[in-house]
Amino acid sequence: MPQPTINPRTAPGFDRFVEPDQALGRLGPKIRVLKSIGWPRTAEAEFLAGWRKGDPRIPVPGTQPQDLHAEREAFLTIMRRCDTGHPIGTYLYRTAWSYAVAADMLMHIGKPRFTECSTLLYGRPDFRYRSQTRTNLDAAEAMLKMTDDLVGGYKVPPTIADMNAETFAAQLRQRIGDYFAGADVEVVIDPKLASKAAAGSRKIKVRSDALFSELDLEQLVQHEAFIHTGTVLNGKRQPLLTTLGLGAPRTTRTQEGLATFSEIINLALDITRLRRLALRVRMVKMALDGADFIEVFNGFLTGGQSEEDAYRSAERVFRGGDPKGGVCFTKDATYLEGVFTVAIFIRKALKEGRPELIPHLFAGRLTLGDVIILAPFFADGTLVNAHFMPPWARDQRRLLAMITFFNANQLFTMDTVDMDRFSLFEEEQIAASGIS
């Protein structure tokens, strides 16, 4: 049965949300966080040249505070006009708040206030949820400890990246063509991109000088294309709350968590990338504690990254901050925290008999909290369901089977088992049988 839809301009009471939604739609795109804090590409060559000569110098990126006073005040005005007694008003209020904080952050590039705002939007590695006993940092350190021997001893061979950007882009176009049929999603090669790849609503960019592997292709399809691009496009299809297609800063944790979960469930996340995500958490904490760029670079290098990758990872941590330490960008700690919270959300939704919440995760750029408070409006047609949704999310029977298995498997501990027990067990069974 087709989902009912509501015209927000004629639905009783909903007209009061149109103006703040449209105002956010106009103002939101002016807050370009990553573009404002990006470092020049020349900084990498200069740093590595000095490093290889034994004379490393802390980079001076030259990023400057942005003049966003008028925009910040405009977001605060929107907040004051939102009816927080209604769930949609609450959603708009929270969205305006996150843009106001992001504007404040960019107004204080290089200053301690930058990091204060960053932690409001993206959290801290050492933050502990009220219902939990461990932190994101604890989980990251556990992952690194479990994988140190496997990777450090080369027992797991490294992934070979030998595909150039042109070949990679061609294969990516082929993979996503049918999925985004009619949406005009373009794959472009960008020489200025800081990361290996990035996704927007209409373009998926790959860095021109990067080398890719076959696994990179699967990761990019599942993470960037099916999640980041897909959720933006779904958000732009909404008849009300077109801000769901913006990607407000507060949605980053859920977005990166959902995208990383998509990698995991499709077996596209390898041990190297998992360690990279965990290392980011550790290094963000080090930077918060005062470590400078060279110390953080060394930390990534010691963790198994190449010189080039270690530089780019350290650069990500200090974007908008102070490379001398203490002021940094905490976004890279959100990937692990995000995937843990998304996984818990999905488990709880299935356990409590609310599987309809899972598709809502893809209907735009939402937080987990948005999914909860906006659920009634998906049910009555005010908000429309996701058009672009990855296959794994459509078949909840397989999703439930996987989650149920891994939950049950956690009942058994490995600490009391050694490898010899698998053989000794059979010997004990034979001896106990009395048959010889």
Task: Please give a structural write-up.
With 436 residues, the protein is mostly helical. It has one domain (14-403). Helices cover 56% and strands 3% of the residues. It contains 19 helices and 3 strands. It has helices at residues 18-27, 33-37, 42-52, 69-81, 87-107, 112-122, 136-152, 165-176, 214-236, 252-265, 271-288, 293-302, 307-318, 334-351, 357-360, 368-379, 391-394, 396-409, 421-433, and strands at 186-190, 197-199, 203-207. Strands 1-3-2 form a 3-stranded mixed β-sheet. A hairpin with a 3-residue loop joins strand 2 and strand 3 (203-207). Helix 8 packs across helix 9 (214-236), helix 10 packs across helix 14 (334-351) and helix 11 (271-288) runs antiparallel to helix 12. The model is unreliable at 1-6 (pLDDT under 50).
